Amino acid sequence: MLKRLLVTSFLLAMPGVHPAFSQTCETLQAGPSGRVVAISDGDTLDLDTGLTVRLVGIQAPKLPLGREGFEAWPLGDEAKALITELTLGESVSLYYGGESRDRHGRALAHMLVDGDAGQVWVQEEMLRAGLARVYSFPDNRSCLEYLLAAEGQGRVERRGIWRDPYYAIRDAADPDSILERDGGYELVEGRVLNADRVGSRVYLNFGRYWKEDFTVVIETPGLRVFEQAGIDPLSFDNAVIRVRGWIDTLDGPRMLVTHPEQIEVLARP
Protein backbone atom coordinates (compact mmCIF):
# COMPACT_ATOMS: atom_id res chain seq x y z
CA MET A 1 0.00 0.00 0.00
CA LEU A 2 2.80 2.43 0.93
CA LYS A 3 4.59 1.73 -2.37
CA ARG A 4 1.40 2.40 -4.32
CA LEU A 5 0.94 5.70 -2.49
CA LEU A 6 4.55 6.61 -3.34
CA VAL A 7 4.01 5.84 -7.02
CA THR A 8 0.75 7.79 -7.07
CA SER A 9 2.49 10.80 -5.53
CA PHE A 10 5.05 10.70 -8.37
CA LEU A 11 2.27 10.73 -10.94
CA LEU A 12 0.32 13.54 -9.29
CA ALA A 13 3.44 15.68 -8.98
CA MET A 14 4.26 15.50 -12.70
CA PRO A 15 2.42 17.18 -15.59
CA GLY A 16 2.42 13.83 -17.38
CA VAL A 17 0.98 14.59 -20.81
CA HIS A 18 3.45 15.33 -23.59
CA PRO A 19 1.39 17.33 -26.11
CA ALA A 20 4.08 17.87 -28.75
CA PHE A 21 6.22 14.76 -28.79
CA SER A 22 6.32 14.62 -32.59
CA GLN A 23 7.76 18.15 -32.68
CA THR A 24 10.17 17.50 -29.80
CA CYS A 25 11.63 14.36 -31.36
CA GLU A 26 10.83 14.85 -35.01
CA THR A 27 13.65 12.56 -36.18
CA LEU A 28 11.94 9.45 -34.80
CA GLN A 29 10.25 6.87 -37.01
CA ALA A 30 6.85 5.53 -36.04
CA GLY A 31 6.86 1.87 -35.05
CA PRO A 32 4.17 -0.62 -34.06
CA SER A 33 1.47 -0.19 -31.45
CA GLY A 34 0.13 -2.60 -28.88
CA ARG A 35 -1.13 -3.07 -25.36
CA VAL A 36 1.24 -3.62 -22.43
CA VAL A 37 0.55 -7.00 -20.84
CA ALA A 38 3.60 -7.62 -18.63
CA ILE A 39 6.39 -5.71 -16.90
CA SER A 40 9.83 -7.21 -16.24
CA ASP A 41 11.45 -4.21 -14.57
CA GLY A 42 11.63 -0.44 -14.80
CA ASP A 43 12.63 -0.38 -18.47
CA THR A 44 11.46 -3.65 -20.04
CA LEU A 45 7.88 -4.51 -21.01
CA ASP A 46 5.90 -7.02 -23.09
CA LEU A 47 3.15 -6.14 -25.56
CA ASP A 48 0.14 -8.22 -26.55
CA THR A 49 1.72 -8.56 -30.00
CA GLY A 50 4.47 -10.74 -28.52
CA LEU A 51 7.05 -7.97 -28.77
CA THR A 52 9.36 -7.30 -25.82
CA VAL A 53 10.35 -3.64 -25.56
CA ARG A 54 13.52 -2.30 -23.95
CA LEU A 55 12.92 1.40 -23.42
CA VAL A 56 15.78 3.08 -25.22
CA GLY A 57 17.61 6.04 -23.73
CA ILE A 58 17.16 5.15 -20.07
CA GLN A 59 18.36 2.67 -17.50
CA ALA A 60 16.14 1.94 -14.51
CA PRO A 61 17.49 0.35 -11.32
CA LYS A 62 18.12 -3.29 -12.11
CA LEU A 63 16.35 -6.31 -10.61
CA PRO A 64 17.78 -9.87 -10.46
CA LEU A 65 15.20 -11.32 -12.91
CA GLY A 66 16.34 -14.84 -12.07
CA ARG A 67 20.07 -14.14 -12.33
CA GLU A 68 21.82 -16.10 -9.63
CA GLY A 69 23.88 -13.96 -7.29
CA PHE A 70 22.67 -10.68 -8.79
CA GLU A 71 21.80 -8.12 -6.14
CA ALA A 72 18.89 -5.81 -6.86
CA TRP A 73 19.83 -2.16 -7.20
CA PRO A 74 18.15 0.22 -4.74
CA LEU A 75 14.69 1.39 -5.83
CA GLY A 76 14.36 -1.31 -8.48
CA ASP A 77 10.95 -2.31 -7.14
CA GLU A 78 9.81 1.31 -7.05
CA ALA A 79 10.84 1.80 -10.68
CA LYS A 80 8.91 -1.31 -11.69
CA ALA A 81 5.89 -0.11 -9.73
CA LEU A 82 5.87 3.28 -11.46
CA ILE A 83 6.18 1.91 -14.97
CA THR A 84 3.44 -0.58 -14.13
CA GLU A 85 1.21 2.29 -13.02
CA LEU A 86 1.99 4.19 -16.21
CA THR A 87 1.65 1.42 -18.78
CA LEU A 88 0.15 -1.92 -17.72
CA GLY A 89 -3.01 -2.59 -19.69
CA GLU A 90 -2.59 0.61 -21.69
CA SER A 91 -2.38 1.07 -25.44
CA VAL A 92 1.05 2.35 -26.43
CA SER A 93 2.86 3.51 -29.55
CA LEU A 94 6.53 2.83 -30.26
CA TYR A 95 9.00 5.12 -32.02
CA TYR A 96 12.50 4.29 -33.24
CA GLY A 97 15.45 6.65 -33.26
CA GLY A 98 18.28 4.33 -34.20
CA GLU A 99 18.99 0.61 -34.04
CA SER A 100 15.57 -0.99 -33.60
CA ARG A 101 16.53 -4.36 -32.08
CA ASP A 102 19.12 -5.55 -29.59
CA ARG A 103 20.91 -8.90 -29.63
CA HIS A 104 18.05 -10.45 -27.67
CA GLY A 105 15.50 -9.44 -30.29
CA ARG A 106 13.91 -6.81 -28.06
CA ALA A 107 12.57 -3.63 -29.62
CA LEU A 108 14.69 -0.58 -28.70
CA ALA A 109 12.04 2.09 -28.71
CA HIS A 110 10.63 5.24 -27.24
CA MET A 111 7.17 4.54 -25.81
CA LEU A 112 4.14 6.79 -25.65
CA VAL A 113 1.01 5.87 -23.71
CA ASP A 114 -2.06 6.86 -25.70
CA GLY A 115 -4.32 8.52 -23.13
CA ASP A 116 -7.55 10.50 -23.52
CA ALA A 117 -5.77 13.76 -22.63
CA GLY A 118 -2.79 13.15 -24.89
CA GLN A 119 0.34 11.05 -25.02
CA VAL A 120 2.66 10.33 -22.11
CA TRP A 121 6.33 9.79 -22.97
CA VAL A 122 7.29 6.94 -20.65
CA GLN A 123 11.05 7.55 -20.69
CA GLU A 124 10.58 11.19 -19.75
CA GLU A 125 8.27 10.33 -16.87
CA MET A 126 10.65 7.74 -15.43
CA LEU A 127 13.51 10.25 -15.53
CA ARG A 128 11.53 13.10 -14.01
CA ALA A 129 10.42 10.78 -11.22
CA GLY A 130 14.05 9.99 -10.45
CA LEU A 131 13.55 6.31 -11.20
CA ALA A 132 15.90 6.03 -14.18
CA ARG A 133 19.07 7.59 -15.58
CA VAL A 134 19.87 8.50 -19.17
CA TYR A 135 21.68 5.59 -20.83
CA SER A 136 22.63 5.73 -24.50
CA PHE A 137 24.58 4.06 -27.28
CA PRO A 138 26.36 5.44 -30.36
CA ASP A 139 23.74 3.84 -32.62
CA ASN A 140 20.75 5.14 -30.60
CA ARG A 141 21.11 8.82 -29.67
CA SER A 142 17.84 10.49 -30.64
CA CYS A 143 16.09 12.87 -28.24
CA LEU A 144 18.83 12.67 -25.62
CA GLU A 145 18.84 16.41 -24.96
CA TYR A 146 15.24 16.16 -23.76
CA LEU A 147 15.93 13.05 -21.71
CA LEU A 148 18.95 14.70 -20.08
CA ALA A 149 16.76 17.67 -19.18
CA ALA A 150 14.17 15.36 -17.61
CA GLU A 151 16.89 13.55 -15.65
CA GLY A 152 18.19 16.92 -14.50
CA GLN A 153 14.76 17.89 -13.21
CA GLY A 154 14.50 14.71 -11.17
CA ARG A 155 18.00 15.23 -9.81
CA VAL A 156 17.47 18.88 -8.84
CA GLU A 157 14.23 17.97 -7.07
CA ARG A 158 15.97 15.03 -5.37
CA ARG A 159 13.41 12.50 -6.47
CA GLY A 160 13.83 8.75 -6.30
CA ILE A 161 17.38 7.53 -6.85
CA TRP A 162 18.85 11.00 -6.33
CA ARG A 163 18.25 10.67 -2.60
CA ASP A 164 20.14 7.38 -2.43
CA PRO A 165 23.96 7.40 -2.00
CA TYR A 166 24.19 4.38 -4.31
CA TYR A 167 23.45 6.69 -7.26
CA ALA A 168 25.45 9.71 -6.07
CA ILE A 169 27.45 11.56 -8.70
CA ARG A 170 31.10 10.64 -8.13
CA ASP A 171 33.87 13.19 -7.73
CA ALA A 172 36.55 12.79 -10.39
CA ALA A 173 39.09 14.11 -7.87
CA ASP A 174 38.41 11.13 -5.58
CA PRO A 175 39.63 8.12 -7.60
CA ASP A 176 39.38 5.75 -4.63
CA SER A 177 35.62 6.26 -4.41
CA ILE A 178 35.35 5.57 -8.14
CA LEU A 179 37.45 2.42 -7.82
CA GLU A 180 34.87 1.14 -5.35
CA ARG A 181 32.30 1.31 -8.16
CA ASP A 182 34.25 -0.93 -10.55
CA GLY A 183 31.81 -2.51 -12.99
CA GLY A 184 29.08 -0.02 -12.20
CA TYR A 185 27.28 2.51 -14.37
CA GLU A 186 28.17 5.89 -12.90
CA LEU A 187 27.99 9.63 -13.35
CA VAL A 188 31.28 11.40 -12.59
CA GLU A 189 31.95 15.14 -12.41
CA GLY A 190 35.19 17.08 -12.35
CA ARG A 191 37.61 19.36 -14.15
CA VAL A 192 39.67 17.88 -16.98
CA LEU A 193 43.30 18.53 -16.05
CA ASN A 194 44.33 17.93 -19.64
CA ALA A 195 42.99 16.40 -22.84
CA ASP A 196 45.58 14.56 -24.89
CA ARG A 197 45.70 12.44 -28.03
CA VAL A 198 48.05 9.47 -27.83
CA GLY A 199 48.10 7.32 -30.96
CA SER A 200 44.54 6.41 -31.87
CA ARG A 201 43.00 7.43 -28.54
CA VAL A 202 42.08 10.61 -26.71
CA TYR A 203 42.51 10.71 -22.95
CA LEU A 204 40.73 13.13 -20.66
CA ASN A 205 42.88 13.12 -17.53
CA PHE A 206 41.49 14.33 -14.21
CA GLY A 207 44.76 13.96 -12.29
CA ARG A 208 48.51 13.95 -12.79
CA TYR A 209 48.96 10.21 -12.27
CA TRP A 210 47.11 8.39 -15.02
CA LYS A 211 47.65 4.96 -13.46
CA GLU A 212 45.91 6.08 -10.28
CA ASP A 213 43.61 8.97 -11.17
CA PHE A 214 40.30 8.88 -13.02
CA THR A 215 40.57 8.96 -16.82
CA VAL A 216 38.08 9.09 -19.69
CA VAL A 217 39.18 7.19 -22.80
CA ILE A 218 37.82 7.74 -26.32
CA GLU A 219 38.98 5.13 -28.84
CA THR A 220 38.94 5.24 -32.64
CA PRO A 221 35.26 4.28 -33.21
CA GLY A 222 34.18 6.87 -30.66
CA LEU A 223 36.42 9.53 -32.19
CA ARG A 224 34.66 9.00 -35.52
CA VAL A 225 31.30 9.66 -33.84
CA PHE A 226 32.67 12.82 -32.22
CA GLU A 227 34.02 13.97 -35.59
CA GLN A 228 30.67 13.35 -37.28
CA ALA A 229 29.03 15.46 -34.57
CA GLY A 230 31.55 18.26 -35.14
CA ILE A 231 33.02 17.97 -31.64
CA ASP A 232 36.74 17.89 -30.89
CA PRO A 233 37.32 15.99 -27.60
CA LEU A 234 40.51 17.98 -27.08
CA SER A 235 38.26 21.01 -26.54
CA PHE A 236 37.34 19.57 -23.14
CA ASP A 237 40.77 20.55 -21.84
CA ASN A 238 40.33 22.36 -18.48
CA ALA A 239 36.52 22.14 -18.76
CA VAL A 240 34.30 20.96 -15.93
CA ILE A 241 32.27 18.04 -17.25
CA ARG A 242 29.82 15.38 -16.18
CA VAL A 243 30.49 12.04 -17.85
CA ARG A 244 28.43 8.86 -17.67
CA GLY A 245 29.28 5.26 -18.42
CA TRP A 246 30.66 2.02 -17.04
CA ILE A 247 33.65 2.07 -14.71
CA ASP A 248 36.59 -0.28 -15.20
CA THR A 249 39.98 -0.39 -13.52
CA LEU A 250 42.45 -0.78 -16.37
CA ASP A 251 45.35 1.50 -15.35
CA GLY A 252 43.34 3.07 -12.54
CA PRO A 253 39.65 3.97 -12.56
CA ARG A 254 38.51 4.86 -16.05
CA MET A 255 35.48 5.17 -18.29
CA LEU A 256 35.23 4.40 -22.00
CA VAL A 257 33.24 7.03 -23.90
CA THR A 258 31.80 6.09 -27.30
CA HIS A 259 29.68 9.13 -28.23
CA PRO A 260 29.40 12.83 -27.34
CA GLU A 261 26.15 12.63 -25.39
CA GLN A 262 27.96 10.80 -22.60
CA ILE A 263 29.66 14.11 -21.77
CA GLU A 264 27.89 17.22 -20.47
CA VAL A 265 29.97 20.39 -20.26
CA LEU A 266 29.19 22.18 -16.99
CA ALA A 267 31.76 24.99 -17.28
CA ARG A 268 34.51 26.07 -19.63
CA PRO A 269 37.65 28.05 -18.78
TrEMBL record:
SUPFAM superfamilies: Staphylococcal nuclease. Residues 1-20 form the signal peptide. It comes from the Bacteria. Keywords: Endonuclease, Hydrolase, Nuclease, Signal. One of its GO terms (molecular function) is hydrolase activity. Residues 30-164 form the TNase-like domain. This is Endonuclease YncB, thermonuclease family. The lineage of its organism: Bacteria, Pseudomonadati, Pseudomonadota, Alphaproteobacteria, Hyphomicrobiales.
